[in-house]
Amino acid sequence: MDLFSIFAALATLAALFAYINTRYLKLPFTIGLMVLAMGFTLIVMALGSMFPLILKDAKAILLGLDFKSLLLDVMLSFLLFAGALHTKLDALQRNRGPILMLATLGVVLSAFLIGGMVYGLLLLVGNPIDFLYCLLFGSLLAPTDPIAVLSILKEAKAPKNLEVKIVGESLFNDGVGVVVFLALFSLAKSGAEDIHFNEIAFLFLEEVGGGIALGLAGGYLAFRLMRTINHYETEVMITLALVMGLYTLASSLHFSGPLAVVVAGLFIGNRSPKAAWSADTQSYIDKFWELLDVLLNAILFVLIGLELLVVDWDGLYLILGLAAIPISLLARYLAVLGPVEFYKKRLEFVPKTAFLLTWGGIRGGISIALALSLEPSMHRDLFLTMAYIVVVFAIVVQGLSLGPVLKKLLAKA
Fold it and tell me: At residue 145, does pLDDT exceed 80?
């Protein structure tokens, strides 16, 4: 099956599931699509038990698609830019302290807490795994997924001062999380004795600092170009080229592509409406990126549901995956508690902010993509199953309950 046929099938499934969800289920858009995709996958698996060739072909198509590359190298840049484009910088600036702490120290602390607790859990069940591999698993679950968070928060109608913290953190922490994952991956692949702390620190500064600088430069250049013309077709093309060019250039320079497109999106979205775009241009750019965001989100969440096919449902793996749910939530809560307590007297926080940041910290496709990038020697099958279970719980249970939880807690305040 060629690439065009695969995308055609995915787009068709996404449109079909979107119709069924909109017409009948009426679940939040992305959650409904993922639930329907998982139901469809279970039907394929049931048919596969009677007709093995169906299951074999379905797995081959899914594995051939390379979910990790599709998400991290193609879709992520567009989705992040679309989210950043509509995020107001003044709200982020007021909360830059907690957002910065959550997206850096919070991610690192969460990775170590998850890794440490999973290491202890595996010892307890008599299946010890190298501590470094457990840290690697912690790092792929540590960042909240901006794609999942942004789409779910739209449905949950969170208070603005809480929404800006969750959205601001999620836009930046996946870039930091990927850097932490890559550093630990290098350690695990090469051996801890071959890599020193200064190399890791340099990698972090290069990826993060370079990504931010490149995003600012690219955003400013695109802004200056659009300021000299009034032609919405060309200006839409400039924003599209900006995302693709920045992500490609960042990858070749070993900078963080996610951070580069987020910074560029924030710059363009906050400067251009007043100084570079006409009303028509802003309308077309907003609609173009909203539509692209919806389409890619639909395909992504369908893919997450279909990934059920390639997960190893070993009994022990299933139990460990279920145990990883409270571990990941506890680690998230402990990681956000410090920044919240430190800043709550200086900034306006809604009641139970630490809990709401924990419950609203949705894991998504990025965690699955990173798990798929692990090598077999790093216990990929085990960690992929555990990560998948945590992600499904986060999107379905946390995502569906976030709105009611918000209403209940804020009503008591």
Answer: no
Q: Based on C-alpha coordinates, what's the Rg of the chain? A: 21
The residue among 325 and 88 whose pLDDT is bigger is 325
Backbone angles phi, psi at 104, to 5 degrees: -120, -75
Counted domains in the chain:
1
Angle at 407 between CA 403 and CA 411, to 5 degrees: 170
Spatial CA neighbour of 214 closest among 182, 176, 258, 180: 258
Q: How far apart are CA 204 and CA 111, in angstroms?
A: 15
Residues whose CB is less than 8 angstroms from the CB of residue 199 and which lie 6 or more positions away in sequence, other chains included: none
Contact 153, 166 (CB under 8 A): yes
The answer to whether position 313 is within a domain reads yes
Q: Is a pLDDT exceeding 70 seen at residue 155?
A: no
d(C-alpha 316, C-alpha 313), whole Å: 8
- pTM of the full structure: 0.92
Which two three-digit tokens encode residue 105?
Answer: 């120290």
In a domain, 130, yes or no: yes
Nearest to 137 by CA among 400, 362, 372: 372
Residue 112 lies inside a defined structural domain of this protein: yes
Using alpha carbons, list the distances in angstroms from residue 126 to 119, 123, 155, 320: 11, 5, 42, 12
Residue 51 lies in a domain: no
Cβ atoms of residues 215 and 260 within 8 Å:
yes
**Host domain of residue 121:** 67-412
- Amino acid identity of residue 227, one-letter, is R
Q: What is the pLDDT of residues 181-205, one digit of tens each?
A: 988 888 888 765 555 667 667 777 8
**Cα→Cα distances 82→79, 278, 282, 326, 353, Å:** 5, 19, 13, 32, 26
Dihedral sign for Cα atoms in the order 88, 91, 97, 102: negative
Contact 351, 413 (CB under 8 A): yes
Query: What is the CATH classification number for the domain harbouring 193?
Result: 1.20.1530.20
* Nearest-angstrom CA–CA distance, 109 and 166: 17
